[in-house]
Input
Amino acid sequence: METKNKTIAEQYKETILTLNSLQKNHSAIITDSQWEKPMMDIRRYLSCLNIQLDYIDRLNVIHVAGTKGKGSTCAFTESILRQYGYKTGFYSSPHLVEVRERIRINGLLLSKEKFIHYFWQCYNSIDEAVQQRSNDEDPLCMPFYFSFLTTMMFYVFVHEQIDVAIIEVGFGGEYDCTNIIKNPIVCGITSLGLDHVKLLGNTIDKIAWHKAGIFKKHIPAVTVLQMPKAMHVLYERAEEKQCTLTVAPTLNQYSNYPFRLALDGDIQEVNASLAVQLVFRWLDNRKVYSYDELMRTPLSQEIRQGLAACQWAGRNEIIDSDIATYYLDGAHTIEAIEQCKNWFLNSIAKQHILTKKILVFYCSNERNPEELLKPLMTCQFNSIAFCSPIVAPHRDKIRTDLTPTDDQWRETKTNGTESDRLTVHTSAFNKLILSMLESQSNLPSVHCFPTVSHVLTWIDENNLSKSSILVTGSLYLIGAFLKLLKDNHSDT
Output
């Protein structure tokens, strides 16, 4: 990229434009049967960057898979180890507002300058190799979006010389492109549920099989209490891969419980319990403290401070504005929606005041809106708004998620597909209402909006001030809300 006389903002836009050109249509991913190809390709891309797999082992990796709570568990883990004074690297997905959220050093997003620098080092080296091997029997192609960012993450962490890498699996586990890690320090499996069933399978045991694919020979693995079928598969896979699997004790088993968690909701106690055990195993491996010693003594100040100071946006997050109180949670599975509902109702009950309850909801194509809406019907919402996870309409009327130079732009979104999706949401809600008429004393008003901007305008113009607004169903929807709420705060 030619950078002469260009501002950092201009360079960053060009960088994001090039990154977004690597996005792969989701339907193509669904039909891709070459499970092992992403990992094989990542190895080739790293080779282009002179990154050997042994270099990745030196990152002292904590590798985490699961259905619910992967990001929160990793965030707790990173926060704790930073309190111990270690230089941390944290890789997560998806991002909510900026792609730089995915690659963090010491809890902070990469600066735009560093992101630009590392991006073009990786992109140009891989692009050159692709051109040179275009006539090979097995030609190298440019990586798709997630594969590129995973490659870039490893490159950044090696060059930043971090002490520990906390790496969240992107998809599944066994065939995820993060699973090129040969020798992590410890592996974690968060709560399991049904998600991505078209690719991972439609039963909990099939899901568990994929997630446990990150287990490695003689490397300790830790999980939380699971459904019996899932737990059985996890133990089978641990035996197959010759590793020891343990279940994290609940937080109330530590002698200095209770202590403050920065993230709200019952599920976060589960995630924090796993994070504590991942830290214990890591510290034991690094010969800082023995595992037995850590288990015998009260949780250290570093651990308690890490749990209390953790920051992880869009998960059980409450934002109080002049207009309303927003309850944001990216729940997108049935189990996560149940947890989200309980958190929302418990949170507003603590206020001891009557408040209008509004639901803003969206779920993506691979998920069933009827299944996800059903648990929420008991909340007795006054209004329900179905909304596309889009910040604002775009002038060309075709691309609806800003422009390809924006972090939140996604290749597949068009006005037509989003309108059709909202129709599916409305039909699912109507079906649920018909089956629950006897138990519903007051039916909520239902609205559809093409963008989050339209929803916020509706809230403002219809005197819905200080209502309690639950936003859930999709991390993309949460990201769009966070962007606008953040922008609105910065304007005041």
User: Anything to note?
Assistant: The longest helix spans residues 112-132. The chain has a mean pLDDT of 88. The CA atoms of residues 12 and 244 lie 45 Å apart. The first strand starts at residue 61 and ends at 65.
